[in-house]
Every structure is written in C-alpha cells, then in structure tokens.
Amino acid sequence: MSQHRKQVSGWTAAIIIIVVFSLVPVAWIVFLSLKTPATATDGSFIPHQWTLSNYSDIFNAGIFTSALRNSIGIGLISTFLAVVIASAAAYAIARLDFPGKTIILAVTLGVALFPQISLVGPLYNLWRQIGLYDTWPGLIIPYMTFALPLSIFVLSSFFREIPWELEQAAQVDGATPFQAFVKVIAPLAMPGIVTTFIIVFIICWNDFVFAISLTSTTAAETVPAAISSFPGVSQFSVPYGDIAAAAVVVTIPVMILVLVFQRRIVAGLTAGAVKG
Amino acid sequence: MAEIEFEDVTKRYPDGFEAVKHMNLDVPDGELMILVGPSGCGKSTALRMVAGLEDISSGELKIGGNVVNDRAPKDRDIAMVFQNYALYPHMTVRENMGFALKLAKTPQQEIDQKVNEAAKILDLEQHLERKPANLSGGQRQRVAMGRAIVRNPSVFLMDEPLSNLDAKLRVQMRTEIARIQQRLGTTTIYVTHDQTEALTLGDRITVMRAGELQQVGPPGELYSHPNNLFVAGFIGSPSMNFLPGEIEGDTVKLPIGHVRIPDELRHRLQSGPGGGRRGIIAGLRPEHFDDAALVADRSRGVTFEAKIDVLESMGSEFYAYFVVEAEQVSSRELEELAADAGGADLPTAEGGTQITARLGADSEIKQGAEAELWFDSTHLQLFDPDTGRSLLAPRTNGAPTSTPVPTGSQPQSSS
Fold first, then answer.
1. Distance in angstroms between the alpha carbons of the first and the last residue of chain A
2. The Cα angle at residue B385 between residues B379 and B389, in degrees rounded to 5
3. Helical H runs in B272-409?
4. Do A131 and A25 belong together in one domain?
5. Which of A168, A174, A268 has the CB atom closest to B100's CB atom?
C-alpha cells in the first residue's frame, strides 16, 4: 500500500516538474506580451502594468497580418504537397520490392541531414535569376523538399503496418491499385498522414533560415522573418512587447491544428481488420 | 459459374525456387475442390495464382474457358476469403459487404438488397451497422464470407478461412460453408492444411507436396486407396501406422503377423518393375485394429499380442498406443510429414515402431497390460520403400481388386 502511494507521489512529482519546466517559458512570454514597453525589461515575471497595446500594435502595423497570411498559405500548401508526394513515395517503398530501395532510403535520409544553411546562398542567387525571389513558390519549393525525407520515413512505417491482405482484398473486390490506395489504404493510414501533416506544418511554420533569406517584402515574408524586422520605437530599442505578442499569436494556429487533429491520431484504427 | 483449368501451371520465384511445379488440374463447374498439404507445399500459391495476386511463370490458367494469365484480379470475376479475413476496418459490415458492388457502380438500391440477402443467409442482419473491430471471430469470418457471396462471382477462392477460429466454431462454420456452397453452386477452390476439413468438406481433394500434385480424388478414394506414402500418411487422423514388411512367396511378413497376398496382386508385384521384390512398407490404419475380444470373425485379419503403453479414452472409442519390435520405416515423405506436424523432435520409440490403434468403446483392455489385438488385413496398404508408391495402385475402376487374406495368425509378442 505504502509502496503504491510512494509510486503515485513519485509520478506526481515527476509530472509537475515536467509541466512546470515546459510551461514556464510559455507563461513568461505571455506575461511579457502583456507588459507596457516601459516595464518590459524590468525583470519581473508578472507584469506590474497590464496592457493589450502590444497586440493592437502588431495587428495595426500591417506587416504582421500579411506575414500571418503568408505563413498560413505557404505552410499549408508546402505541407499538403509534401504529404501527397510523400504518401505516394512511402507507399511504393513500403509495398514494392524494387532494386535500389535501400539506396533510395539512405539518400532521403542524407537529404534530411543536409545542413539547410549551406543551400541558402545558391538558392538566393538562383531564385533571383529565375524570378522566384520573394514569392510564395520560392519558399514552398524548399520547404516541401526538406519536408519530404521525414514525411517519407514516417509514412512508410505507417503503411508497412497495414496488412497487405486488405489491399489484395480490395483488388479482388474489383478496385484498381489507385482505388485500393484511396479507399482502403489511405483511410487506414490517416493517423500517420495526420501526424506527418502536423510535423511538416510545424517545421514550415517555424522556419527562419529560408524565410529571412529568400523574402524581402510583405509579398512572401512569413511570421518568423517579419518578427525579426519589427521596428522599435527608436533605432536602438528592441520591441520586446511586440515580439512576445507576435510569438503568442503564431502559436495559436499550431495549437488549434494539434487539438483538432488529436482526435484522429488514435492508435488502433486498424483494429478488427484481421484476426483478433 | 465456371470451370477452372490449370494447364502445366508453374510458379517460379526470382531466386529459382519453384513453388508450384507443372500443375495440371481441372475443377469442373460447381465443384468444391480442396487443396490440401503441409505448409509450404504450394497450395496457397496455386490459389493466389487463380486470384491473380501471384503471377504465373509458365503454363495456362483458364477460368470458364478463357485464359486469365494476364488479367488483373478485378477482371477475373472471382471472390476470395482470406485467412485473416482482411475486412476493411474503417467500414461497417454493410459497407464491407457492399464495397465490391459499389466499385462496380451498382445502384445503391440493388447493393442494399443484395447485402441484406447475404446478411440473412449468414445471420448477420443485426450486425450490419457495426464495424469489424466490434465483432467476434466467428462474425468476422461470416462477414468475409458475405463479402464474397454478395458479388455472386463465378469462382470462390478460400484460403484457410477457418484456421483462425476455435475448434468448436470451426466445425460449425465448416458445415455452414458446405451448405452455402451447395446452395449457390459456385465453383470453389478451398485451401487448407487440415486433412479433417478436407475430408469432410470437399467434393474432391487434391493433395499437394512440394509444389507437386500427389493425388486428386474424392475423399473416400484418397482415404482407402492412397497413391503413395505421403497421401497415406497425410490423410486420416490419427494417421496411418507404417511397418516394414517382406513379401515371401504369397505372404506378406509383418512384425504383427503374416498375411497372404491374393494371386492377382502377386502377379502384379512380380510383373512390375523389380519383380519379386522382397521389402515393402505396410500401411495400417488405426481404425482397422480392434480388441480381438470384440471381433466375432477373426478370419479376415491377424490377431497378435501387444503390451499397451498408453490407453486414451475418447468416450466413443479408445486409442491404444503400443510398440512393435521393428525397424522404424524411413522414407523422405514420412519424415516430411512428421516434420510438418512438429513431431520430428519427439523421441521415437526405442528399438521399435509406435503403433496407434483404435479400439471399440466396449474394450476392456487395460493400460500397461498385455492385450490381444486384431487387425483387419483386408485394409492393408502396401508401398514400395524406394519410390513410396502404392503397390496396390493403380486400380482399374476404383474398386479394390486385392484383399490380402491372412494365413493363420502368428501372434508375435511386442515389447
């Protein structure tokens, strides 16, 4: 009994530590966004003077709202394309036995490990020459490319878990391979597809390296790049309040995304397909 | 409705392994054909070639007279029941059963009608709106059957459909499948490794071993007149006992006694290859033994004494196990069977051959005691020890032409 109680209290302590550890920075930035510019650097955790002016500032400035629009648009399009292409590739890798399969997997892993910063320079020059600089496609292409290896990896492991018989049953039932994929395999792999979607979206959403290098105006600047160029009151003051407010605002879409799709990420969706 | 013909069909994998070797088989319209054999004998591969899930390396496969080698599964008008059912977990039972019709763009009203009909046959009506995860094993199995029935295909293919059910349910579903197949009259190929299922279910049975057909025939024929040692050992449960024997003149000398060979058979043995052969392998089915005390007319068989090591009561019968002093017969085919049954690792009876005998329920034989047993030698099977082929086959019209008659029983004691 006491053994049990000790275990419970141990777990409780561990959980509290983890929650505090991960939530303190979040709380800190929320409080920072609610401080007036004058008290922003006073070192207190809880604001002495509460204000919402930082939020109204960033939404009135124009640069932030356009950046938000760019981030959402570029993020969703890149993620959608990456997941669609990765699904097809992952399905092939999971199902087909073709020569060079391991090499392809190794190469994709290599691409994932490639330092992105080393590509920024060449891309900058190339994009300027072919007119992709400071456009949506100019960010969508690198985002999609760098998201593919991870997506293929995650998705192929999900596809591998789906019993092959289901697909064969669909074929015998009269489905073309494409129908079998769309009507049977994809719905079953939905938790994997959703998981991949969220991971890829967050990567695109938070990217700073490409965003700051390949954009220059509100035409394609995403939120992380825009935040870095927030103007201060004077040349030497940093607009901490505005930055904190923007950071709070940009986490909201990601949180909504995760909360909405969390219900789809349930294990055991394939339960009952085969003997049990 | 269609006839299925295998013409010299071979399945060769890229590594050169031949899973099915030059298979020739004709399944007439409406027949329930069982493919049976130990695991790895190529029976499932053969079935999957009919389904179109496996390419055919050479030969021709015809369904309803048309060569279907290069047709996709969906163009073959077949339905298949998978070993693990392969139900679509994200669809309800109704959607599962109607999936094929929906793909074929059948009007919704017709789909509903057909699904309801099939559900009625299979007693699934109250489960139509549930998902497979919420069904029991037997119900899932019936949904898998329903998915096949709904389409009214020309061929049913069943790949060990009952192997995931528990024993009692399996017997029930076995009867169910036979009933449905009879009612629909659809040509069916049914793959199983369970010889009981094969014997009880099939119109005809094909026994396969290592990709080759061993024997094709109705259950009774395979049971009474096996072509070779493999079929003899595979069909029947408990399986046939094998003893080494010797032919001397007109008698077969067995460790349990001497049996006279009828003239007709003797001529055949002498005229056959290696005429006047001496050594043979004799096959004795457990059910052709009995407690000598229960046999009124012992003249049709041999009587002998044995010490009963183990006696198992089944209620309706006894199984007696005893050891006969004789060299264990060795044959590749029998070793394969033993390995498949997992019996290869079991210790063999020392210095003898273990025999299983089925005795009547009235027997008063006791475990551990000497007992007088009797074997009905009219059912004795004789095999060539080198080729494994039956010496009693081939027969002209299926009727046994030889009935070995005993020459006075010479009981021999067994350990």
1. 36
2. 65
3. 332-340
4. no
5. A174
Query: Considering CB atoms only, which of B74, B84, B131 is closest to A165?
Result: B84
Q: Which residues in chain B are classed under CATH 3.40.50.300?
A: 4-229
Sort strands B187-192 and B155-159 into parallel, antiparallel or unpaired: parallel
Q: How many domains does chain A have?
A: 2
Residues A125 and A240 in one domain: yes
Question: In which domain, by residue range, is A18 found?
Answer: 2-33
Q: Which range, of A221-225, A264-268, B88-92, B309-313, averages the lowest pLDDT?
A: A264-268
Beta carbons of A274 and B137 less than 8 Å apart: no
Same domain, A160 and A23: no
Asked if A270's CB is within 8 angstroms of B86's CB, the reply is: no
As for the ipTM of the complex, it is 0.76
CB atoms within 10 A of CB B163: 15
Question: Which residues on chain A are in Cβ contact (under 8 Å) with B134?
Answer: 272
Domain B4-229 = CATH 3.40.50.300:
yes
Whether A173 and A126 share a structural domain: yes
Contacts of A163 in chain B (CB under 8 A): 84, 86
Of A172, A184, A272, the CB nearest to B132: A272
**Per-residue model confidence as pLDDT tens digits over A36-95:** 877 877 878 888 888 888 888 888 877 888 999 999 999 999 999 999 999 999 888 888
Together in a domain, A8 and A96: no
Check CB contact under 8 Å for B133 and A272. yes
* Chain B: residue whose CA lies nearest to A163: B86
Q: Which residues contact B4 (CB under 8 A, 6 or more apart)?
A: B25, B26, B27, B33, B50, B61, B62, B63, B155, B187, B189
Residues in B 66-95 with any Cβ partner in A closer than 8 A:
72-74, 78-80, 82-90
For the entire predicted model, the pTM comes to 0.78
